[in-house]
Amino acid sequence: MTQSNEEFGLPPVAEAKQEIVSAAERVARLREKAEAQAAAEFDEDAIYARLLTEARAKHLSLLSGDEVELPTDTRGFPEDYDRINIFKGSNKQDLSYVPLSLNGLCIKVPRGVDVILPHAFVVDCLDQCIEDVTTPAIDARGNLAGIEIRPAHRFPYQNKGKATTAEYKAFQEQQLEQAARQLARVA
Fold it and tell me: Buried (b) or exposed (e) across 47-82, using 16+ Cβ within 10 A?
C-alpha cells in the first residue's frame, strides 16, 4: 500500500509534467535560439565602436611616432637608406670589410668606400657595435694618472646623408655587376 505525503503531514508532491516534444518542434526551438544568439553577436553598433577604437589607436600611434609603417623593399626592410663610409681599421688585423647581419641577412660592407645601406643596418648593427677602449688617464698637470676605460664604436663611420630608393637600386646593380666581373676574372 502506498501512502501519500499528506498522510505524513508533508506538502503534496507536484506531479512531473512530461512534455512530449516532437523532433520538428525541438529543431525549430534550437533554430530560434541560434538566430537570437547570432543577432546578439552581430551588433553593428558594437562592431563599429570596436573598429573606431582600432582606427583611433592607429592614428594616435602615427602621431606619437610609435609605429610608423614604411614601405618595404624586396628584403623586408623599410625603404629608408643611408649613404655611409666606414672608416678603415686602425689595427693591422682588421678586415677590409665589416660583416653586418640583420634578420638572417649578412652583408660585407667595404671600409673606406661610400656605400648605400638600408637604415636598419645602420641603427641596428653599426650603432650597436660598442666596445670598451682602454686609454691612458691624464691628470690636470699632464701626468699619467692610470688608465681609463670608455665605450667607443667598434666600426666608426661617417653618415653622408639619406639616399633615395632609385640610388639604392642603382648601387645594388653596380655591386652585382662588380661581383660578376670579379667572378669572371677568377674563372
Answer: eeeeeeeeeeeeeeeeeeeeeeeeeebeeebeebbb
pLDDT digits (tens, 9 = 90+) for 109-126: 999 999 999 999 999 999
Q: Are residues 86 and 119 in the same domain?
A: yes
Distances (CA, A) of 95 to 86, 87, 98, 107, 118: 12, 11, 7, 14, 22
DSSP H or E run through 151: strand 144-153
Alpha-carbon distance of 120 to 102, in angstroms, equals 8
72 near 81, Cβ under 8 Å?
A: no
Cell of 84: 655611409
Structural domain includes residue 135: no
Asked if 148 contacts 131 with a C-beta cutoff of 8 angstroms, the reply is no
| 180 in the same domain as 89 | yes
Q: Does 111 lie in the same domain as 32?
A: no
Kindly state whether residue 29 falls inside one of the protein's structural domains. Answer: yes
Q: Both 104 and 168 in a single domain?
A: yes
pTM for the structure as a whole: 0.54
Q: What CA–CA distances, in Å, run from 177 to 14, 108, 171, 183?
A: 95, 16, 10, 10
Measured between alpha carbons, how far is 179 from 185 in angstroms, rounded to an integer?
10
